[in-house]
Amino acid sequence: APESPLSSAEESVKSLGEPAPQPPAAEPSEPSESQPGTPLPAPGHSGLSIQEMVAMSPELDTYVITKKVKEVLTDNNLGQRLFGETILGLTQGSVSDLLARPKPWHKLSLKGREPFVRMQLWLSDPRNVEKLMDMKRMEKKAYMKRRHSSVSESQPVDSGLQGSDFSQGGSPQHQQLQLKKPRVVLAPEEKEALKRAYQQKPYPSPKTIEELASQLNLKTSTVINWFHNYRSRIRRELFIEEIQAGNQGAASEGGSPSGRVSKAGEGDSCDGTESDGTVEGRPGGAAGLEEYGGASEGEGGDPKEEGGPETPARSPAPQDATTSASSVPGTSGHKGSAIASLFSFPESAPAATRNPRDSSLRKKKAANLNNIIHRLEKAASREEPSEWEF
DNA sequence: TTGGAGTCAATAGG
DNA sequence: CCTATTGACTCCAA
């Protein structure tokens, strides 16, 4: 068997500065980066680059796509690493995240949509699994080979120094100095404290951050990063609930028990001691305490409905969950233009009516509200307040 | 500069 | 091995 003639390029991606050639045995050390150079070298056939396809891609149902991908991968014992590296050009962790918490299409940036377009393309490739399995075999073969040579090398019970083995490729990486930054791991209590601080003030001032840092004995940058990450991840959970809400009737064929994404939990603000009773099950009704710490207040509390910070109204076109057959239906009139496969979700849209928001997630929305408030205050204190257009 | 979006990559569990 | 989590980084836009 020759080998995979597949879109080859697919992986030659990242060419520059990447240790792509083979699984790193020795670390490539410094992460430096040369410039991106060719962003996406893997257009595959049919001319246009992925970016172009992303640009003209119709709205895709990220939830359905990831669901399908997960199914195919697990059914065939293909790992996220392999899939990510060869098909998406992403690392395992990123793939895991993407598959577990896909953001709705309309909330994704152009860049963020790329992986989904690639997934859709992959799903519509009749030989996708076959190709990946080939890759898998090739990797194993390479691994075996490598292992062998190294074994034979270490066999000689020589005395003396252990010659550092050179990973071929001859990068000069020398001693890495173990200055590899140990990776901060926040203790559960520290996280608790930070979460508590977040509930009071999702957007702490530099001063507050400094205080938190010193109180918790953390670097300022760590606290800053934590807030960035936490906000970002909270936001994402909101998106997910949004998707699930819209994608109710998911009764696909036998199989996926559709894992609940709920996680919730969170201790309440005041005093740590998780008073939490046995809140079992669902994202149960959380007490929606939403008082923002200090700062302004005295709102003329009108129970106003909160409006999403953005995208006032949208019509995600609820796709039917059970999207069968990935292959492109009749559409294929033309010489396999890859784009066609992006339009493979013909089914008419059931156009369901948005049902009232579910309960729960109150807390999260509160944080979101804080977000808005924060911006308003910020705007107010700055230059001419005049227009608060939203 | 600040915040958001995407990712990476180390690491914790299976 | 594999997958999930998560602190840190890179890019970008305002």
Average per-residue pLDDT, rounded, comes to 64
Q: What are the secondary-structure elements, in order, as H or E?
A: HHHHHHHHHHHH
Number of helices: 12
- Shape summary: globular
What proportion of the residues is helical, as a percent range? 40-55%
Distance between the termini: 61 Å
Structural class: mainly alpha
As a percent range, the share of strand residues is under 5%
Q: Which runs of at least 5 residues are low in confidence (pLDDT < 50)?
A: 1-43, 154-174, 249-333, 346-366, 377-390
Largest sheet: none
Number of strands: 0
Radius of gyration equals: 25 Å
Q: Which characteristics define this entry?
A:
mainly alpha, 41% helix, DNA-binding, 0% strand, 12 helices, disordered C terminus, disordered N terminus
What topology emerges from the helices and strands here?
Layout: H1 9-12, H2 50-56, H3 62-75, H4 80-88, H5 92-100, H6 110-123, H7 128-154, H8 188-200, H9 206-216, H10 220-246, H11 338-342, H12 362-381
Helix pairs in contact: 2-6, 3-6, 4-5, 9-10
The protein binds a DNA duplex (14 and 14 nucleotides) through residues 31, 33, 79-81, 90-98, 100, 103, 108-109, 111-112, 115, 180-186, 203, 221-222, 225-229, 231-233, 235.
Model description:
The chain is mostly helical. Helices cover 41% and strands 0% of the residues. It contains twelve helices and no strands. The protein has helices at residues 9-12, 50-56, 62-75, 80-88, 92-100, 110-123, 128-154, 188-200, 206-216, 220-246, 338-342, 362-381. Helix 3 packs across helix 6 (110-123) and helix 9 crosses helix 10. The protein is globular. Mean pLDDT is 64; it is low at 1-43, 154-174, 249-333, 346-366 and 377-390.
